[in-house]
Amino acid sequence: MGEAAARGRKSIGAKRNPESADAIIEAAEGVLREAGYAGFSIEAVARRARAGKPTIYRWWPSKAALLIEVYQRQKRVETPDTGNIEDDLAGFLKNLFAHWRDTPSGNIFRSLIAEAQSDGTAAAALAEYSKGRRGHTGRMIERAKARGEVAADVDAGIVADLIASYAWRHLLTDRLDEDDAMIRAAVRYVVRGIAPTP
Amino acid sequence: MGEAAARGRKSIGAKRNPESADAIIEAAEGVLREAGYAGFSIEAVARRARAGKPTIYRWWPSKAALLIEVYQRQKRVETPDTGNIEDDLAGFLKNLFAHWRDTPSGNIFRSLIAEAQSDGTAAAALAEYSKGRRGHTGRMIERAKARGEVAADVDAGIVADLIASYAWRHLLTDRLDEDDAMIRAAVRYVVRGIAPTP
Amino acid sequence: MGEAAARGRKSIGAKRNPESADAIIEAAEGVLREAGYAGFSIEAVARRARAGKPTIYRWWPSKAALLIEVYQRQKRVETPDTGNIEDDLAGFLKNLFAHWRDTPSGNIFRSLIAEAQSDGTAAAALAEYSKGRRGHTGRMIERAKARGEVAADVDAGIVADLIASYAWRHLLTDRLDEDDAMIRAAVRYVVRGIAPTP
Amino acid sequence: MGEAAARGRKSIGAKRNPESADAIIEAAEGVLREAGYAGFSIEAVARRARAGKPTIYRWWPSKAALLIEVYQRQKRVETPDTGNIEDDLAGFLKNLFAHWRDTPSGNIFRSLIAEAQSDGTAAAALAEYSKGRRGHTGRMIERAKARGEVAADVDAGIVADLIASYAWRHLLTDRLDEDDAMIRAAVRYVVRGIAPTP
DNA sequence: TCGTAAGCGAGACGGTACGTCCTGTCTTCAG
DNA sequence: CTGAAGACAGGACGTACCGTCTCGCTTACGA
């Protein structure tokens, strides 16, 4: 599939051809997987997808936009619900690190963050995406609050921030193989810090 | 000084000309300050420093190397010693955010992180640098341990990691104007989490 | 009329819509008038005519074909009949230069000649057109022959060629503002050269 | 030589590399010869010369500039001096037509004229070149004047114009295989027209 | 009377070329 | 014998057109 299927692909009239879109996204993923962010250029993607550059620019105005869509097509990492906040967060981080380590997702997200340092639209998109994820992690905290594991006056957003920051930095400094015990220790420090005072 | 002084600078014979090196580093800093990472190219630096590109490549084999040297020339942010770990860490983060916000340092460090995502030498340099900083922040924790504010079995490295991660993410997502109260809350969560159990 | 009227123009069933054809030709003329040959593209014409590109390609298989039809819609320059061959030819050239200078015709014809240098159909069309014009100018010579102003054995086609060539070159080298006296001198040299030997 | 020799060609320091310039001009000539004006693009020339596009743009700011230099590298057509103006001019045209027909020169010059219809710099360059050629042909006339074959008050420039125009139009309408007798007749008409009145 | 066939505006498609910017390497030459 | 200067091959950028295609619609015409 993908590059091969692209052979002979044509327009399907005055509307977007989903085959082309798919081929382009798959090609983008392939380029990132095989050549990394350094080799990720619109030209390379177009070549691999057997698509014209303007077709890419028509739908994704910047490298960042394409990167985001590629990232969003990736499988989501599952967030456990063990009934215990420490296990939930440690499990989530473990899953996330494994996901980033073993699929192209990690490379893609790293690239997106890097791109955001020089491209405003990437920055905006990343901010948007982060907001969504913050809510997601926030729900874990809220559940724990309901169970009485977390003090009622704790700001779930800040906790989510701490956890996400920890993950980002491990991604950006190539430490996704972090020891489980270390992850758990980091989580424990935070979880203790937000526990209700007895 | 700087770009201006470069006018007419000439070779000083069979050794590295420190005037040139200075002019190049200052030009690099200037480019980063004014055009950001997006506009940071060897060409731009050479143009601004009135230097030849090969002169730059001779001494800094990659953009990353130049970036690192530029970053290391920056003033360090001071780490307070208030006798209280929460105040120490919150003050440190406040100072750090202000430093990154108000000097080119923020732009430079962001660029270095971005560069590290596609350049191995930048990644290595960044890892090296981070190790040093971890020790540095770690000492704050160790002092607190000595004062009995922090449990003895706490891994200072992990705490330093959490704090640094929080800072990085704010830098990378353009949130250096974070409210003091928020910073303090985040710090408090961690500080409480590592306090000795009574 | 023209671009404005095009708004909302639709198919009128299974036959060519003359409104569209007109709008396209007028748009083509407009583009040539305002942007010259350099700006003359099928896209630009379609945009201005509010027509689809395929509608243009359906009826004019190439830029050349459209150019030819546009040129043929132009008003012809009038050929004086003063009873004197020198006045006839000089007047004709003067009129022709003015026509080319003051209407889009000049731009269009220049474009057609240029196009003919890389497009065979344009070349063929131009040859066809030139043959017609040669006959036309030839008649001026024949009239003069009948009046005894021109030797009987003169080849009218060659004379027409000389006159047309002179005109073309002035068009192609932007010398349509040539002095009347110069034009008349050129004509006189030829007219004398074909006069009957006394 | 040419494309082959280009393999591995490098800069020779802070000055123009004549090997590159040669390779580019030869490649340009080759492209024109084999693909004609329609296939003449800077990309194609760069590809064939194994040169970077910027190297071409550095020295020839437009297609026209390159075209002109290519044309000027061509062998000049020789202008006979038979002592008789009719023979001189007819011989010159015959030679010119043969030259244009049998070498790439014809294609190149046609292309240059076409280019001049949409590119101002080409037009200017062509005007400049034409001025030079007009003087050249003019000298044939002046010689004839000195011999008493041509009236003293004849404007040599206008005669040169007539002759050059005749040649251009034959080039542009693909009639370089014109019969010698026809050429001679055209020349005779003009020569008679500028002979001194007895 | 109605189905069908063709023309229409629209615009996406795979491509090619544009002219610019940058990369990292190379050579020359002034000092 | 260094270092500045800048040319070089190459490749990516984002844009403009090319000529082709299909869509969804409208209308004329033949069955």
Automatic annotation (TrEMBL), chains A, B, C, D:
Keywords for the protein's UniProt record, in alphabetical order: DNA-binding, Transcription, Transcription regulation
Domain of life from the UniProt record: Bacteria
DNA-binding interval(s): 41-60
InterPro entries named among the record's database cross-references: Homeodomain-like_sf (IPR009057), HTH-type_TetR-like_transc_reg (IPR050109), HTH_TetR (IPR001647), Tet_transcr_reg_TetR-rel_C_sf (IPR036271), TetR_C (IPR011075)
Residues in HTH tetR-type domain copies: 18-78
GO molecular function: DNA-binding transcription factor activity; transcription cis-regulatory region binding
Pfam families, per database record: TetR_C_11, TetR_N
PANTHER family: HTH-TYPE TRANSCRIPTIONAL REGULATOR RUTR, TETR-FAMILY TRANSCRIPTIONAL REGULATOR
Name under which the protein is recorded: TetR family transcriptional regulator
Source species: Mesorhizobium atlanticum
